[in-house]
Structures are given as C-alpha cells and as structure tokens.
Amino acid sequence: MKTHPYLRAYLAGIFVPTLVLPLILTAFFIVRFVLKVPAPIERAIIFPMAVVPTVFGLWNMFYLASHERTHLPIGLHGALIPLFGAPLMALGGSCLGLLAFGSSGITYLETILVPYALIAPLFLCGLAGYYLVWKYIVSYLNRVMGIA
Fold first, then answer.
1. Which of 11, 5, 142 is CA-nearest to residue 73?
2. Cβ atoms of 78 and 130 closer than 8 Å
3. Which of 15, 32, 73, 101 has the fewest CB atoms in 10 Å of its CB?
4. What's the pTM value of the predicted model, to 2 decimals?
5. pLDDT at 1 over 60
6. Cβ atoms of 12 and 144 closer than 8 Å
7. Is residue 142 a contact partner of residue 9, using CB atoms and an 8 Å limit?
8. How far is the C-alpha of 25 from the C-alpha of 2, rounded, in Å?
C-alpha cells in the first residue's frame, strides 16, 4: 500500500496524543471538581487538546518529507518539538494570561508557581520523553503504516 503516505504519516503521528490527552483531561477534571482546586483549567486544556495531535501529525508528515535529505533519526526529530513548541507556548500562555513571569518563577493559572530552577530539569525530562515516544511508538506506527 503505497498510496497517500502523508495521510498515513499524519494518522501515525496523532495516535499518541489522541490516547494521552483524554487521560490528562480526566486528571484535570478530578483536580478541579473532586479536589476543588480553584484553577481555571478549562482555559488551559481546550487549546492543547486541539493543537497537540495536529502538531504531532504534521511533524510526522514533515519527518516523512525531510528524512531523505536530512537522515535525522526519528527520536531526535521528535525531540525537536519542545525546542520549537516551548517558546511558542510560553508566548501564547503569557498573552492569554495563563502564565505570569515573576521574580521567583513562572505562575501557571494564577495558582501554581514553578521556580526557575525547576524549568531546565523539567524541560530536559520533556525532551527525553518526546525522544522516547518518537523513537519507540511513532517509529513503530510508521512501520505498521508502511511509511518507515
């Protein structure tokens, strides 16, 4: 089956976030409605639920299109998403009032304070997570879809 390789790449890319985001949404609902945390999580979860699967799918399509020229391993290609996405998300979050940059750290949703000393280790953990997801799960799905 060699027809529509970019559609198959898109579908392989959206698989992981489509499965994970409902679990995150469930955790947000438990925090909001069961534990009664007064954070406006509705504003913070709807946009990522729409954007993240699309970004994964488009990024996998970009991998398929550029792999012949770059020969970049798929895990490294996937780990590049946070390098581009984190600054854009920080800019968007601050413009929408979801993030506030203070002297001691970043305040998320006016309730959660993340000290600046934790941002680099959390970012590195995120890079490692993206690398592993793309190296093992997305590459497997690409092979199943016949595009690897």
1. 142
2. yes
3. 101
4. 0.84
5. no
6. yes
7. yes
8. 36
